[in-house]
Amino acid sequence: MKMTQEDKIAYHLDTNNALDRVTELVHTRLVDCGWRDQVRLACRKAISDSGDRIPSVDELINNITGNARGMVPDSVKKELLHELEKILVNVDKVAH
Amino acid sequence: MKVVWRTAAAVEYFGRSEAAAVCMQVSAVEIEQEVRLCTSSTVQRRGGKRGRFEMMAADEPQQAFTHDDDFHDIVNDKDTLRRATERFLVNMIDELTLGIIFDTHRKYKTRAFDLDGDGSPCNDIGNDTSVDIFGQHNMKKTQECECPNCDRAVVAARFAPHLEACLGMGRSRSRNASRRIANNNSNNNNKDRDSNMYSELPSDDEFDDSGDKRRKKKHRNGNKKGKGTPKKLISETEPIETTTVDIEGDEDGDVSLKDFLQDNSNHSSPVDVSAPATPNSNKSKKDKNKNKKNKRDRTSPSTSLE
């Protein structure tokens, strides 16, 4: 089974009990910057625009996922990337 | 070897395509190759059907070592680390987005909310005063009545007690009410108090009817208590017959006691009574205090006569 690099990162974080911490960190940052509320509003708008018929999950995913990535503020993204790199370096130091 | 037999077991249990789905990203071809290897060599298949395909866990020592090396290589190279971290973050954001989409879709599917306006389903209650935060209507509508005496809007459940207090039928607070009423009536009508409907109420100078009621209550209570302790009953009945002092109305009690003492003594003038330095007033005060103390002692349930 070939693992991608991000899968390897996830695997190593999981084995070192850091994945939960990283997930919580990302989640907290995204909530604080209002990204989650924006995505939620986008979902509601997509549903209301469709009229009486509620769109399927697949349709919502196709419509919203792409936009959701761009909704993350650049500053938050940079900060998260920086912190993730720090954590990965520490995990590597501990492992070796 | 463990990887081989577990893969074969997965193929046996799930079938080829399903085993691939369970394995996640493992192609059916690879599984077939594994199975051929498995059958060609004499590999003992352990146990029955094993439901899980645990490739990573099965090959722990060897693959973990390679993963560590790979991870180390990723971390050491800055560009690789940056790109891998970015992809990892994007995956995480996608997962969160999926969670939000599933949650929103489920809410709208299960409850079919009205989407007019920006308000969320939970906030539709909003400014509606007849509905509380749980969306329940206030079934008990509070009916309000207007008091004929003070013209206040009173809740129906509290109307009777309010009326009792307002009209002076109740306890100590009613004395203020009755005084107020009496003053109002004297100002308004300029008639005798006797002709007034409220004249039936006891004045502050006279013995308090509520005190009588209280005495009766005490008497009743005394009877109840007296079944077990007849001595107490006797002692409790004695003050009831003789004393007239009302404990609750402290201000009024002073006045009534003073008047009472004046009437009994007939020696001192009102001026002397009011003066604090006179011996008679001191005596009266002392008597008053004594009476009060005695009364308290007698009426307190914890006292013993022995």
What does this structure look like?
The complex is a heterodimer of chains A (96) and B (306). Chain A has one domain (5-91): Orthogonal Bundle (Serum Albumin, Chain A, Domain 1). Chain A is built from five helices and no strands. Chain A has helices spanning 5-15, 19-32, 35-49, 57-71, 74-95. A two-stranded antiparallel sheet of chain B has the order 1-2. Chain B contains 13 helices and two strands. Chain B has helices at 2-14, 16-23, 28-40, 55-58, 60-76, 78-111, 159-166, 172-189, 209-226, 230-242, 250-265, 270-274, 279-299, and strands at 144-146, 153-155. Chain B is mainly α and 306 residues long. The chains are: A mainly alpha (96), B mainly alpha (306).
Question: What topology emerges from the helices and strands here?
Answer:
The complex is a heterodimer of chains A (96) and B (306).
Chain A: H1 5-15, H2 19-32, H3 35-49, H4 57-71, H5 74-95
Helix pairs in contact in A: 2-5, 3-4
Chain B: H1 2-14, H2 16-23, H3 28-40, H4 55-58, H5 60-76, H6 78-111, E1 144-146, E2 153-155, H7 159-166, H8 172-189, H9 209-226, H10 230-242, H11 250-265, H12 270-274, H13 279-299
Antiparallel strand pairs in B: 1-2
Residues in helix, % of chain B: 55-70%
Number of strands of chain A: 0
Tally the beta strands of chain B: 2
| Rg on CA atoms of chain B, Å | 46 Å
Shape of chain A: elongated
Which strand order spans the largest sheet of chain B, edge to edge or round the barrel? 1-2
- Using the CA coordinates, give the radius of gyration of chain A: 17 Å
Structural class of chain B: mainly alpha
Mean pLDDT reading of chain B: 61
Please report which band the strand proportion of chain B falls in: under 5%, 5-15%, 15-25%, 25-35%, 35-45% or over 45%. under 5%
CATH architecture of chain A: Orthogonal Bundle
In CATH, the topology of chain A is named Serum Albumin, Chain A, Domain 1
Task: Determine the strand fraction of chain A and express it as a percent band.
Answer: under 5%
Quaternary structure type? heterodimer
Largest sheet of chain A: none
CATH superfamily of chain A: ENY2/SUS1
Termini separation of chain A: 24 Å
